[in-house]
Design a protein that fits this description.
437 residues; DNA Cyclobutane Dipyrimidine Photolyase, subunit A, domain 3; five-stranded parallel beta sheet; binds flavin-adenine dinucleotide
Length: 437
């Protein structure tokens, strides 16, 4: 039995179905669950949520006789310092795909080798590991979703792991203080595994059946809102999928809410495997198509503030500002409005999303933005988008718009998506930035 193993937590802030933690608890006498707050990584608006996740994780570890050890500084230096202090023989991490995460994993592996400490990477961030599937026709990843979905659905899953019963931390290790929240997270989203698991169970029990019909209803609040919990790993995507299959009886091609929901989870895995193969997804066009973007700070700023004069766009952008989250249909509408109608570079929009979204992560944010901009994995990059038609279809009563753009509260429903048609306009609300007819 190895004496002591360090488990370095990052975007896997849970005790259930955590392969790196489970292996440490099974094979080592002592385990050091470690989180290093890295001041060089801007936490943005996610800091409050993260602080809640860490407090909850600490509580769960304490219930098992353990502790969450928290340090501040460079994660590699702090991990190696703690390895020396505790005489740890191994370091465990969950494998991640972004450039930053990979640089960290590489450096940690090198330092471990130098110190003769074992270094092990485990799955856990996705359902199917990002390096598990290769297209039969060649290439190191799937570029198109549908064939990926077919191969993904057939792929064998690892077992969903229970939370460890006991976590034995070596004596005498200073626990350290968790990072300050900065500001409390939005009350719609309290961070942590406990809240995440409760939300997961309630969603699967009461709502998932309705998902196929309801997920595009912008006012209806009929999606899971689990994305921040998946982003921080409070919920295991593998366990979520397994439970969804159980309640929905999902099999390939059977349809229904749970099937559609599992398909969305597959999109998440899809972008992880794209990012693993193309880590510069947040900077470079995945498929360069010679776009010439306009430099228009004024338009970009109006878009960010939810003041473009196009109600459905402004509603989405204001939901982002107030909740740190946005409905998927709204993300597609505001994204395509920025790049196609305003001609602004997708990176401007994607960076803004990344700063503000609680679920903002490299693979999903930049992968989706490139899809919207036509530089990514969409096989029909030039498909036409009519923003007003979309607004009328997915927010037919204008309820979503009224909720987020109160100035439009008294506009009649037939005009809610086109207030510029009102002869006198709407006091306090701008005319559209671009012609909308
Ligand atoms: P549900 O509809 O309940 O779906 C369940 C889960 O499936 C989600 O939590 C998510 O993990 C996954 N999922 C759903 N749709 C997608 C998708 N299109 N791509 C990848 N995974 C998906 N999602 C993020 O998690 N982080 C991001 O930074 C992000 N940025 C986006 C940017 C743009 C421009 C667009 C169009 C989409 C983006 N998405 C992102 C995808 C999607 O909008 C969100 O995952 C979803 O709205 C989260 O809400 P939910 O949990 O209620 O989703």
């Amino acid at each position: 039995m190895t004496d002591t193993v360090i488990v370095l937590f990052s975007r896997d802030l849970r005790v259930h179905d955590h392969p790196a933690l489970a292996a440490a608890c099974e094979h080592a006498r002592h385990v050091v669950p470690l989180f290093v707050a890295d001041p060089s990584v801007p936490g943005g608006d996610r800091r409050g949520f993260l602080a809640e996740c860490l407090a909850d994780l600490r509580e769960s570890l304490r219930e098992r006789g353990g502790e969450l050890i928290v340090r501040r500084g460079d994660p590699i230096a702090e991990t190696m310092r703690l390895a020396r202090e505790t005489g740890a023989r191994a370091v465990h991490v969950s494998m991640d795909v972004s450039t930053l995460a990979r640089r960290r994993q590489r450096r940690l592996a090198e330092e471990c080798e130098r110190a003769r400490t074992a270094f092990h990477m485990f799955p856990g961030l996705t359902i199917v590991p990002p390096d598990a599937l290769r297209p039969s026709g060649g290439g190191d990843h799937y570029r198109v979703f549908t064939p990926y979905w077919r191969a993904w659905a057939r792929q064998l899953r690892r077992e969903v792991l229970k939370a460890p019963g006991v976590v034995r931390v070596p004596d005498g290790v200073w626990a350290g203080r968790p990072p300050e929240p900065g500001r409390a997270s939005h009350e719609l989203f309290r961070g942590g595994e406990t809240v995440g698991r409760r939300r997961m169970r309630q969603w699967l029990k009461h709502c998932v059946d309705d998902y196929a019909d309801g997920h595009d209803d912008m006012a209806g609040n009929r999606t899971s809102r689990l994305s921040p919990y998946l982003r921080f790993g409070c919920v295991s995507p593998l366990e979520l999928e397994a439970l969804a299959r159980e309640v929905g009886g999902v099999g390939e091609g059977e349809g229904g809410g749970a099937e559609e929901f599992v398909r969305q989870l597959c999109w998440r895995d899809f972008f992880y495997q794209v990012t693993r193969a193309f880590p510069r997804i947040n900077r470079d066009d995945y498929r360069p198509r010679g776009h010439e973007w306009r430099d228009d700070d004024h338009a970009a700023q109006a878009w960010k503030e939810g003041m473009t004069g196009v109600p459905i766009v402004d509603a989405g952008m204001r939901q982002l500002l107030s909740e740190g989250w946005m409905h998927n249909r709204a993300r597609m509408i505001v994204g395509s409005f920025l790049v196609r109608r305003l001609g602004v570079d997708w990176r401007v929009g994607a960076d803004h999303f990344f700063d503000l979204l609680l679920d903002g992560d490299v693979a999903n944010n930049y992968g989706n933005w490139q899809w919207v901009a036509g530089t990514g994995n969409d096989t029909r990059p030039n498909r036409p988008v009519n923003h007003i038609r979309q607004a009328k279809r997915y927010d037919p009563e204008g309820e979503y718009v009224r909720r987020h753009v109160p100035e439009l509260g008294t506009v009649p429903t037939r005009m809610i998506h086109e207030p510029w048609r009102l002869p006198s306009g709407v006091p306090g609300y701008p005319a559209p930035l671009v012609a909308m007819d």
